[in-house]
Automatic annotation (TrEMBL), chains A, B:
Entries under InterPro entries matching the protein: Cyt_cd1_C_sf, Haem_d1_sf, Host-pathogen_enzymatic-act
Signal peptide: 1-19
Protein name per UniProt: Protein nirF
Pfam families: Cytochrom_D1 (PF02239)
Top-level taxonomy: Bacteria, Pseudomonadati, Pseudomonadota, Alphaproteobacteria, Rhodobacterales
Organism of this sequence: Thioclava indica
Keywords linked to the UniProt accession: Signal
Amino acid sequence: MKRLLAATALALLPFAALAMDADQSRATGDMGLVIERATGSALVIDRSEHAAIGRIEGLGDTSHASMTYSPDERFAYVFARDGGLTKIDMLTQKVVARTMQAGNSIGGAISDDGKLVAVSNYTPGGVKVFDADTLDLVADIPAGGKTIGLADLPGRRFVWTVWDTGHAFMGDFSGETPVVTDLGEVGENPFDAVVTDDAHTYLIGLFGEKGVTSIDLWSEHPKPVKFLKDYGKLEDDMPVYKMPHLQGWAFTEGQFVLPAVGRHELLWVNRETLEEVGRTQVHGQPVFVIAQPASPYVWVNFATPLNGVVQVVDSRTHEVVKTLEPGKAILHMEFAPRGAEVWMSSRDDNKIIVYDTRTFAVKAEIPAQSPSGIFFTARAHQPGL
Amino acid sequence: MKRLLAATALALLPFAALAMDADQSRATGDMGLVIERATGSALVIDRSEHAAIGRIEGLGDTSHASMTYSPDERFAYVFARDGGLTKIDMLTQKVVARTMQAGNSIGGAISDDGKLVAVSNYTPGGVKVFDADTLDLVADIPAGGKTIGLADLPGRRFVWTVWDTGHAFMGDFSGETPVVTDLGEVGENPFDAVVTDDAHTYLIGLFGEKGVTSIDLWSEHPKPVKFLKDYGKLEDDMPVYKMPHLQGWAFTEGQFVLPAVGRHELLWVNRETLEEVGRTQVHGQPVFVIAQPASPYVWVNFATPLNGVVQVVDSRTHEVVKTLEPGKAILHMEFAPRGAEVWMSSRDDNKIIVYDTRTFAVKAEIPAQSPSGIFFTARAHQPGL
């Protein structure tokens, strides 16, 4: 009888194991996560199936969250507003590590080799660097203020900027001890910064003063250079409903495309000369301006109260070629990596909408709870994401 | 007793199932295949582990083979010289479909949505299009000659060129019936062609006449334009040991970098004006010129008999900054997608060598049988690859 019980106990194992197997034996190249901003959760999505295939809970305050993936696409690192850093296993759909690393966080990045995860913090400020495997703290870099615009650079390095002191820094974590270099003053109050897709240029947006600052990251002695001295928010303009996300700056056709702060405008800048080459009047205050892969088009969403509209602009003519009304409160857009479709989150319609980028037909709608950021695993292979 | 046996039989199941599980439950973002050119096989590699984790055999004549991945990274489609098209499951490491689709094949591509696989053929010529799921033939486009330079374009389209007739074609497979458009004459004998990373320009190399042909793929009426009228192979130059691969044309810093046919030279061309902006003297006749991601560098390998050397060239100064001797007969190079390392195949040393791109240290060596092309799954997310 005892042997029978033992055998039965063993016999029960396989079903659980096989059930888990069915979920876990899958390629990860078409997976993704959608942040659900009100519920501290993320929806696991399958791009090929146009489907949600799971939900991960317990991510903390996801009202302003971002994330990055390990190089093998197995793990997602979610940076929540409350300072929580959560490591998710995409195959088992489980939280495998979690740390409350600060009081208030703004974003993070993973090193080019996938070994380190860095987080930029508002409270108490500074940058914390963690072992990507265990989430053990490996470096704690104070900054004397709120850290913004953290991005990875090749060679296990990161770059970031400090709102309060106006300085940018490069941190090299390839040796035994971190080497942090002050790149100089970029402006009074840098509010966000982004690295171009070739990791060549660090672009820093300034608050309360005109101009944008650029740093040549390929230079042996990188230093801040101010350009576009007519760009930015001063008193005479419209109120700013939402600071634009600089990660949304599109790089296309030899140009940068910038959301004009506080205006219903896009600015086109020649990538080489850093001179303005055109403006586009758009529906509202731009938030994300994202290039559709393998095309001349950028797609733009807008700040509240005009956030029910998305516009498509041709980077050759600078003209709006399409205006869509996908749903209420379109917070984010993510393209399939070869550009065939774009996924949009409609926060107030509680759904994700998938558009065909060529026909503008709606290919699918997927229910989600107050969805915001959409992140496909293909980001694992893009420097700066 | 009978019940006990039944329970025991059930109990035996899990071990087999779990053993398979161990192999199949893995993320696919850091996987890849290395073509073994003498044995009709491909090595399955794990980039994170710097290891070979399996071998797939029965791929036919792999002496000149290429491949592409499905959008989810689950399947690889291998195009062999003998016309064999083989579909490999990356998780089970098994051949799941195979067809001898022609007598002699040169390469292929997958549609942006992953639904169609197209193959360009020498014998009998033309383009065949297959269902990516089943490998059933869905379209057979005759061409009146050998097809070269086949690449995917957004919107379930492909572009290709015919060596014998000198015409380029665009095929749209998004509707019920394929629509094939003749883009006009590109030159007498186009030997290879490539689409730029933004899918904007189709560049076509010509044999036996000077010049390169460019087609603006974003135009409503794309048409061939000849440029670089001093470029190419005529009688007075050195013998050509190997036609350079145009897939190796690097696009960096607003430039194209071209291997000079039959010369020990790279040519730098301004991407916008299509004018030559510089030349670099290199070690031998360039074969692949590949841009290191997130850097100003291109890496170059060379035709026999000088194929034991790899050089690194700075795209800003056009100067050689490093000369490496990795091994005998370096046939191909593939970068980790964020550029941290480069993998090289040394055919005659029967190994793959992994270099750190920053320190030039050898990080690993992996045994392989006459390795040639190296293909990481991250290619699934790059238009034109």
